[in-house]
Amino acid sequence: MYTVKLEKFEGPLDLLLDLIEKDKMDISDVSLSAITDEFLTYLVHFQEKSPSYLADFLVIAAKMILIKSKTLLPSFAVTEDEDREITELKERLADYQRIREGARLIGVLERKHMSAYHKHSELRHVRVFLFPVGVTPETLHGHFFSLWQAGMQKQELEERKLEYIVSFEERMQDIRSRLEQSVRLGFSALTDAGSKVNVIMSFLAILELVKQRFIEVEQDALFGEIDIVKT
Questions:
Q1: 44, 55, 89, 96: which has the fewest Cβ within 10 Å?
Q2: Tens digit of pLDDT at every position of the chain (231 positions)
Q3: Domain boundaries in the chain?
Q4: In what order do the strands lie in the sheet with 227-230?
Q5: The domain over range 168-230 is classified in CATH as 3.40.50.620
């Protein structure tokens, strides 16, 4: 037998939350199923005449019966829409619980005549900037002016001549021309040892000319001189 105190609730969620908190339960399918009979008993003794107020309770009652059927009958299947409605009911109830708890805390503050509310800071230590002893606006102005003057000074850059770099095609053409005059040449004679770029360009050009069968290369010893012979 269920005993329900007939009092005016703000709505069905208010009644549900009262029944759950009375039994000290969490919001879940099991807890909602457990209080279904008490919720329906309240509706039996319902004295509210407003159709819209009654309709809100009847909608929730239908969902409560669905939840209890799902909990008691493992074979009872619900549709996706029904399952979504059950989830939404639990989420709405959880939101309402947080709102009601917040309202209760505000009521406590009002009874203490505390008319201002603020969020408690999570910062234990607040950092503030304090001028060092002896520092004045005048000294700060002087330091900033000195920095500004230093920044305005022109910096003399080192002058360097741009080195002309022979292109890959020019290096190939130069080797062709020189081999027209001399059938055999050494690699060292074709390159400028003082320029790494020239050496690399020359080597790549020779490889391309070997590929084109314009020249052949010979080397008698490891790391020895490379002889270039026109074919």
A1: 44
A2: 333 343 445 677 777 777 777 777 777 777 777 788 887 887 777 666 577 777 877 888 888 788 888 777 767 777 888 888 888 888 888 888 888 888 888 888 777 766 565 666 666 666 766 777 788 888 888 888 888 887 777 777 777 776 666 777 888 888 888 888 887 888 888 777 667 777 888 888 888 888 888 888 888 887 788 888 888
A3: 12-111, 168-230
A4: 184-186, 227-230, 215-218
A5: no
First to last CA, the chain: 115
